[in-house]
Amino acid sequence: MAIAVYGAGGIGCYVGGRLAAGGADVVFVGRQRLADEVAEHGLHLTDYLGADLVVPAVRYETTPAAAAEADLVLVTVKSAGTADAADELASVLEPGATVVSFQNGIRNGEVLHERLPEQTVLTGMVPFNVLNRGSGSFHQGTQGKLDVQKHAALEPYVDAFARAGLPLTQHDEILPVQWAKLLLNLNNPVNALSDLPLRDELAQRAYRRSFAAAQTETLALLKAAGITPAKVTAVPAHRLPALLSLPDFLFKRLASKMLAIDPHARTSMWEDLQAGRRTEIDYLNGEVVRLAESLGRQAPINSKLIDLIRQAEAGDTTAIPGPTLLKLLTSA
Ligand SMILES: NC(=O)C1=CN([C@@H]2O[C@H](COP(=O)(O)OP(=O)(O)OC[C@H]3O[C@@H](n4cnc5c(N)ncnc54)[C@H](OP(=O)(O)O)[C@@H]3O)[C@@H](O)[C@H]2O)C=CC1
Ligand SMILES: CC(C)(CO)C(=O)C(=O)O
């Protein structure tokens, strides 16, 4: 039961590392920079509940061939890298291997499936935040369990995930879970543009209202498309915009769980901008715009967030204050 983590960065090192700490046979496939870090320090994994694990002997490789023996592959590259990762996996994997996308966005599973017709491809969802603290150290800063599409091929691994402290919740239908996560990811561009840790950003009403505006627009489109997002947070998706829009003192009182975040945690989009990488904006807010187009409608707020992130990707990373962002979005 060999497991490969393909694209071992923040999510891959954390999920794969916990599986390895629980006794699973895991190989990590990723970039040389992280291979060097992990060779020097091993993996150090912590979480918001106080877990503190060291995985000393980590097999971190940098070529696709390292995944060849895997029965289960967890794909954790950013969405723009999925097609290349799939082509690389197609050249090495045995027919019958199981491949799970643990990525944000809606279509990564489809991209993998098209390129890996001989493997079982499933879609998963990671609800929690992982902070890369450097030197092989990764911290789970928020709560949540791993979600995945239900399939018999997962049965041999259910215990390994449970032993890792990351039990799998299996779903007959994963699309509503993916859209529920995407609704939360609509905060990624707001967070990246704020240039603040998540907790500080969400403590400011104008940023929360910007996030809520993007959600409200998306919820209306989902309703028109007949998609009901799954319930992945304590508050159902359709109630989140009202909760987010509350004045600060009420929000802090009524939504304390949403602010129970590691003080340093940021979104993966902020990390991408800092690293000068292309963000996942096309796979998050871009999906909302595509959904609108498919319905003959528009999504001006999500389109504006895409424009602003494009500017940031082009080098203009000046932080946008909450009230300015809200004005830009509501006048879009
Ligand atoms: N970070 C978080 O808190 C969360 C992230 N997610 C989602 O999980 C997914 C992974 O995110 P995250 O872990 O943050 O991303 P990272 O960028 O930290 O990790 C991905 C790693 O894969 C490497 N990589 C890309 N292509 C290949 C390839 N073909 N072969 C080997 N390595 C490759 C990347 O290198 P390089 O950069 O050089 O391409 C990078 O080091 C994303 O879809 C993200 O949205 C979901 C929940 C929370
Ligand atoms: C967990 C969350 C919503 C925020 O960190 C995320 O998915 C991301 O950063 O991409």
How would you portray this structure in words?
Residues 3-151 form the Ketopantoate reductase N-terminal domain. The chain is an alpha/beta fold. The protein has two domains: 2-172, Rossmann fold; 177-330, N-(1-d-carboxylethyl)-l-norvaline Dehydrogenase, domain 2. Helices cover 43% and strands 16% of the residues. It has 15 helices and twelve strands. The protein has helices spanning 10-21, 32-41, 82-92, 108-115, 158-163, 175-185, 187-194, 198-202, 205-225, 240-244, 248-254, 268-274, 285-294, 300-313, 322-330; strands at residues 2-6, 25-29, 43-47, 52-55, 59-61, 72-75, 98-101, 120-125, 130-134, 137-140, 146-149, 168-171. Strands 5-2-1-6-7-8-11-12 form an eight-stranded mixed beta sheet, sandwiched between helices. A hairpin with a 4-residue loop joins β3 and β4. The radius of gyration is 19 Å and the shape is globular. Bound molecules: NADPH dihydro-nicotinamide-adenine-dinucleotide phosphate (NDP) and ketopantoate.
